[in-house]
Design goal:
Structural class: mainly alpha
Order of helices and strands: HH
Largest sheet: none
Low-confidence stretches: none
Number of helices: 2
Number of strands: 0
Shape: elongated
Radius of gyration: 27 Å
Helix content: 55-70%
Amino acid sequence: MSRTRLRNTVLGIGATAAAIAFGYFGVQYIGRNNMFTIAAAVGGAGVISYVLQKPNQPQSPSNQPEPQPAPIKTQRRRNKL
């Protein structure tokens, strides 16, 4: 497992635990209906950020083929006598 993947996994688990704790204690102090409102707002913000960051879909292929790259010429080393 690479370092980036491990870091993202640990951060994801930590964020999930923090969200559960926030929800549990939030209901105790500010009430159930307010927590539903906060959850809906956070979920909506997540959906909006996902849609805005989604990469553009490739356009439909045209009838013209893509141009082929020119071959790269290599120079031969000459032996010095």
